[in-house]
Amino acid sequence: MSEIWFRTGEATVLAAEGQYTDAMPEVLIGSVRGPVGQAFASMLGQVQGHTRMFVVRDLNQLVRPATLMTTKVTIHTAEYAELLGGVVQAATGDAIVDCVIEGILPKDGLDELCMIITIWLDERCGSHEELDRKDLYRTNYEATKLAIGRAIRGEPTIDELIANRKTVKHYALDGVIDY
Predict the structure, then answer these.
(1) 178 assigned to some structural domain
(2) Locate the Formaldehyde-activating enzyme domain: which residues (predicted)?
């Protein structure tokens, strides 16, 4: 395996109608001996409201490569924390293992890699009485696989970004700027 030093990726998968289950993970992948490994080790402590945890598929099922996840949104409720450490963590773990199975992540040398994944979980999910946990799983699973694949492949490339500079714009810019 050629060494993976510092790779980044992100993806967005949108929720089903009426849900707040959009998933937008951001992934950092790299060698345990490099800057990603240093950041990984530095994150082992806790920060109030932004729990950091190893990604596990279930009890006693730590994924490889070792992966830490943390939230982009401050945790305020036990219900939110339960979703994060339950459905979202399991979906993230399953996606990581499937990335190895499918050859997106190299099986050889996994213990030389580590990942950090920041997780978007809308704070309305914790109090949404009709939350579709299957959709929450789906969006996080799909987005995590996409983000990891994009990180490994270096997507989007700078050539893609240059080519679509005047045709793709952030959704928040609708009505703000015209190309």
Answers:
(1) no
(2) 8-171
